[in-house]
Design goal:
The complex is a heterotrimer of chains A (293), B (288) and C (215). Chain A is globular and about 55 Å long. Chain A is built from ten helices and 13 strands. With 293 residues, chain A is an alpha/beta fold. The two termini of chain B are 29 Å apart. The C terminus of chain B is likely disordered. Classes of the chains: A alpha/beta (293), B mainly alpha (288), C mainly alpha (215). Chains B and C meet through helix 1, helix 4, helix 5, helix 8 and helix 9 of B and helix 3, helix 4, helix 5, helix 6 and helix 7 of C. Chain B: It comes from Motilibacter deserti.
Chain lengths: 293, 288, 215
C-alpha cells in the first residue's frame, strides 16, 4: 500500500501537500441498520438467481452521485443512501449479506443495456417505471413515488415552476424522462445533457445552467448537501414510480423481489430506511402500493 | 531545415530578433500570469479543493483509473498491430477476393469516428451477445480504428522498400508469403517505427473516450472526482493532476518516436534516403 | 431499422448540421492558427520557436477528451462562460491547430532548399521569403496531410456530445431515451459520417495526385 501511495504522489507531482493518505473523515450519516442475510433461499426457474448463486455474490447497479439516494463517498469508497439501503435489503432477503454485494455505478442512459447484457443482476437507482422501458426490462415495485421538480440557485427567484423556464437553460442527465418532458411540454426552455447530475450541479454553481430538473428526491439530496447555494422549487409536476430494474424474462425473480418489497413496507423497515436517509432533509413519505404484473 | 529560411543575423537583425524574442517572452509570461491569477482569483489554490488528493481512497481511485487506461491501451496496441499486419498483407494479396474486401474494411473503419464505433460495439454486442464489457467495447473499437490506420502505414512501408529486395528474394526461390514476412515486413517496420509509435500514442489518448460508456479509465474517474461538492468542485486541481499524468506518459512515448525518427534519418542519410518513406506516413497523429 | 431514421429525421438533420457547423468553424480557426504556429516554429526568433514547439508538444500529447474536459468543465470554474458550442469550438481548435501546424511544417520541409536560398539571394527578408516563396509551395504540399487533419477533426467533433453539445455523436443516447434501439441509431450515424467524410477523402486523394503531378 505504501509503495502504491508513493507512486501516486510521484506521478501527480503536484501533491506535495501531504505525504500521508488520510483514510476518511468520521462520517456515518445516511447509514441504515444493516439487515442480516437470509439463509437457504431457493428460487426455482430464475436464471438471474442461478447466476448469483454460482457467482456467490450479487452485482447491483446503482447511482453513485446522488447524495442520500445512491452515493459513493469519494474518500471511503462506501455506498450509502435510500436506494442503496433498499438494494441491500433485497440482497439480504435473497441470501446475500453486505460482504457479498458488489455495487456497480451505471448511469441512466446505460441502464437497459446493463440489465440486458447481464452486467448487473438488478438495478436500484431512481429508475422510473414506464411502459416503454417495460419492453426492454421488467420492474418490481414501485418502492417509492417521486415527482419531477426543479433545483435552482438559492438567490434565483425568477424560476418558480416549469412555466417560468422560457429562455432558461435546463440541465439533466442523458437518457432521462424528465428532460424529455421539458422538451415536449415546455418548448421555451433550452436543454443541456450531461452524464451525471453532479456535473449539472457543478455547471449550475458555476453559472452555465439555470436550473436542473429531475425527481424531487434527487434534488433534495443536493439541496441538503449545499443548503447555502441551492434550493428546490417545491412544485412537483409529475409522478415517477421508482422500481427495481430486472431482466425482462425473469418473472420468478420479479415476484420474489416484489414479496421482499412488500415485507419491507409492512415490517416498518421501509420507514426506518427512509428516516435514516432521505428523511434527514425534513420531508416525510409513505410507502406506495405495489404494482405486480 | 529551418535555417535555410533566413540568413545568419547581422547586427541590426540581431537587435530586432532580440526585441521580438523579448516581446514573445513577455507575451508568454503575461498569458501564464493571467492563468495563474485567474486560478488564484477563483480560489483554485484553496486547501479544501486540493485536500481531496490526501485521501487514500481517492489516490487508489486515480491509480485504478490509470491502470485501466494502460490496460486498455496495451491490449488495444497489441491487437491493433496484429490487425494492421493482417490487413496490410490482405491488401497486398494477389487474389482480388481477399484484396478488395480488405481494402473496403480498412477504408470504412478509417472513415468512422472512434466514438461511433465504441457506441456501435457497446450497444450492438451487449444487446445481442450479452457478455462484452465496457473494457472490450473500448479495446475493440480502438483496435479496428488504429489497426486500419496501421494497415495503411505498414502498406506504405512495404511499398517503400526498394524493389530489388523483393526481386532478389523471389530470385532465391522464396514464396510470396515468405518474401512479405521475412524480407519486406522487417524493413517496413523499421522505416515506419516512428509512425507506428505515434499511432500508438493516438491509441493511448483515445482510451479517454471510454468515459462515454463509463469505462472506468483515468478521465472517467477524474470527471467523477471533479464533481464532488464536499471539495468545492475541484475541477481545476483534478485537471492539473490528471493532465500532467497523461502528458508525461504520452510525451515519453512520443520522445521514443522522435528519437527513432532521428536515428532513421541519420542512417538514411548514410545510405540513400528514400524520401517517400517519410512522406508516406502522412495519416498518423490524426486521432483524438 | 429504417423507421429509426425516418421517424427522427429532424433530429438527424439538426444534429448533423451542428456537426458540420462545428467542423467548419473549428476547421477555419485551426487552419489559420495552425499556419501561424507553423510560421512561429520556423522563425529566426528562438523565443517564438520555443513557444510554438511547447504549445504543439503539449497539445499533441493530451487526449482531446481531456482538452474538452478542461474547457467545458474547467472554464466555468474560472468564471469564463460561453455556450457549450463555443467551448467545443475552443477545444477542437486548440487541439487541431497543433496538428495543422505539424502538417504545414512538413509541407515547408518539402520545399526545395534552393527556393529559399534564391529568395534570400535577391534580398528578401524572412517574412517575405516565407509568405511569398516558401509558404505558397509548402501549402500545396501540405494539402494532403492537412486534409487528413481536417478529416480527423470531422470525426473528433463527436466528442462534443459528451460535453453539452447536441451533435451527431449524441443521437444514439437521445434516441435510446425516446425508446428506439440505440444500435440502429448508431448505424445511421455511421452512415451519416461516411457521407460527411467521403467527399473530404475524395478531395484529399485528388489533391494528393495533383501535388504529385505538379512536382
Amino acid at each position: 500500500m505504501r509503495m502504491r501511495r508513493m507512486a501516486v504522489l510521484a506521478i501527480a507531482g503536484a501533491l506535495a501537500l501531504s505525504a500521508c493518505g488520510k483514510d476518511s473523515e468520521e462520517e456515518d450519516a445516511g447509514a441504515a441498520p444493516a439487515p442480516s442475510a437470509a439463509t437457504g433461499v431457493t428460487l426455482e426457474g430464475s436464471p438471474t438467481f442461478d447466476k448469483m448463486t454460482s457467482r456467490g455474490s450479487v452485482v447491483i447497479g446503482v447511482k453513485e452521485d446522488q447524495p442520500n439516494l445512491g452515493y459513493k463517498d469519494p474518500t471511503t469508497g462506501e455506498y450509502s443512501g435510500f436506494d442503496i439501503s433498499v438494494a441491500k435489503y433485497i440482497a439480504s432477503k435473497l441470501g446475500f449479506g453486505e460482504d457479498k454485494i458488489e455495487f456497480k455505478a451505471v448511469p441512466s442512459a446505460n441502464r437497459e443495456t446493463a440489465i440486458q447484457g447481464g452486467q448487473i443482476d438488478y438495478y436500484v437507482g431512481t429508475y422510473s417505471i414506464t411502459d416503454k422501458r417495460k419492453e426492454q426490462v421488467s420492474f418490481a415495485g414501485p418502492y417509492f413515488i417521486a415527482g419531477q421538480d426543479l433545483l435552482v440557485r438559492k438567490d434565483d427567484n425568477s424560476i418558480t415552476g416549469p412555466d417560468t423556464l422560457d429562455g432558461k437553460t435546463v440541465c439533466s442527465v442523458t437518457g432521462s424522462t424528465p428532460l424529455q418532458r421539458i422538451r415536449d411540454e415546455y418548448k421555451g426552455a433550452k436543454t443541456i445533457e450531461f452524464q451525471k447530475y453532479s456535473q449539472c450541479v457543478d455547471q449550475m454553481l458555476s453559472g452555465q445552467v439555470d436550473a436542473i430538473t429531475t425527481d424531487d428526491a434527487i434534488l433534495l439530496g443536493y439541496a441538503a448537501q449545499q443548503p447555502d447555494e441551492l434550493k428546490v422549487v417545491g412544485k412537483p409536476f409529475s409522478e415517477e414510480k421508482y422500481g427495481v430494474g430486472l431482466p425482462k424474462d425473469d418473472k420468478v425473480l420479479r415476484d420474489k423481489v416484489n414479496d421482499v418489497i412488500e415485507e419491507m413496507e409492512t415490517s416498518g423497515e421501509w420507514q426506518r430506511i427512509y428516516d435514516a436517509t432521505l428523511g434527514q432533509s425534513g420531508s416525510t413519505a409513505t410507502p406506495p402500493p405495489l404494482e405486480r404484473y | 531545415m529551418s535555417t535555410v529560411l533566413y540568413d545568419a543575423a547581422g547586427p541590426r537583425a540581431r537587435n530586432r530578433y532580440r526585441l521580438y524574442g523579448l516581446l514573445t517572452t513577455l507575451a508568454v509570461v503575461a498569458v501564464l500570469a493571467y492563468v495563474v491569477w485567474k486560478f488564484y482569483d477563483t480560489g483554485q489554490f484553496s486547501g479544501r479543493k486540493w485536500s481531496i488528493f490526501q485521501y487514500e481512497q481517492v489516490q487508489r481511485t486515480l491509480l485504478s483509473g490509470l491502470g485501466n487506461t494502460l490496460k486498455a491501451a496495451a491490449t488495444g496496441a497489441v491487437l491493433a498491430l496484429a490487425f494492421g499486419v493482417l490487413f496490410a498483407f490482405a491488401r497486398l494479396s494477389d487474389r482480388a477476393w481477399v484484396r478488395v474486401p480488405a481494402g473496403l474494411v480498412v477504408e470504412l473503419f478509417r472513415a468512422l469516428p472512434v466514438v461511433v464505433m465504441i457506441f456501435l460495439i457497446y450497444y450492438g454486442t451487449l444487446a445481442n451477445a450479452g457478455s462484452a464489457s465496457t473494457f472490450w467495447s473500448v479495446v475493440i473499437a480502438l483496435t479496428i480504428y488504429n489497426g486500419s490506420v496501421l494497415a495503411e502505414v505498414f502498406r506504405a512501408g512495404i511499398a517503400a522498400v526498394p524493389r530489388g529486395q523483393s526481386e532478389a528474394a523471389y530470385a532465391i526461390g522464396l514464396r510470396k508469403s515468405q518474401v512479405l514476412r521475412m524480407i519486406l515486413l522487417p524493413q517496413a517496420v523499421r522505416a515506419m517505427l516512428p509512425a507506428i509509435i505515434s499511432q500508438l500514442v493516438v491509441l493511448l489518448k483515445d482510451t479517454a473516450l471510454g468515459f462515454l460508456i463509463t469505462y472506468r479509465e483515468l478521465l472517467t474517474e477524474a470527471r467523477q472526482l471533479a464533481s464532488y461538492g464536499e471539495f468545492e468542485f475541484p475541477t481545476i486541481p483534478v485537471a492539473i493532476v490528471v493532465g500532467a499524468i497523461y502528458i508525461v506518459i504520452c510525451l515519453a512515448l512520443s520522445l521514443v518516436a522522435t528519437w527513432l525518427e532521428r536515428r532513421n534519418r541519420e542512417r538514411g542519410r548514410r545510405r540513400t534516403a528514400d524520401r517517400n518513406v517519410q512522406m508516406g506516413a502522412g495519416e498518423p497523429d490524426a486521432g483524438a | 431499422m429504417l423507421e429509426t431514421l425516418t421517424d427522427n429525421w429532424d433530429l438527424f438533420v439538426e444534429a448533423f448540421r451542428t456537426t458540420v457547423l462545428l467542423l467548419i468553424v473549428s476547421g477555419a480557426i485551426s487552419l489559420v492558427a495552425g499556419t501561424l504556429l507553423g510560421a512561429m516554429r520556423v522563425s529566426p526568433v528562438p523565443a517564438l520557436r520555443t513557444a510554438g514547439t511547447a504549445y504543439v508538444t503539449l497539445l499533441r500529447n493530451t487526449p482531446l477528451t481531456f482538452v474538452f474536459f478542461f474547457v467545458a468543465f474547467g472554464f466555468p470554474r474560472l468564471d469564463i462562460r460561453f455556450s457549450y458550442f463555443a467551448f467545443a469550438v475552443v477545444a477542437l481548435s486548440a487541439y487541431t491547430s497543433a496538428f495543422v501546424c505539424e502538417a504545414v511544417r512538413s509541407g515547408i520541409n518539402t520545399v526545395h532548399v534552393g527556393q529559399a536560398e534564391a529568395a534570400r539571394a535577391i534580398g528578401m527578408t524572412f517574412g517575405q521569403t516565407l509568405t511569398q516563396v516558401v509558404l505558397p509551395q509548402a501549402l500545396r504540399a501540405a494539402v494532403p496531410p492537412v486534409m487528413s487533419v481536417i478529416i480527423a477533426l470531422a470525426k473528433n467533433t463527436t466528442i462534443a456530445s459528451g460535453f453539452g453539445v447536441m451533435e451527431a455523436g449524441a443521437i444514439g443516447a437521445t434516441l435510446n431515451e425516446r425508446g428506439y434501439p440505440a444500435f440502429d441509431a448508431m448505424i445511421w450515424v455511421a452512415v451519416g459520417f461516411v457521407i460527411v467524410v467521403l467527399p473530404l477523402s475524395l478531395t484529399q486523394r485528388r489533391l494528393e495526385r495533383a501535388v504529385v503531378r505538379s512536382r
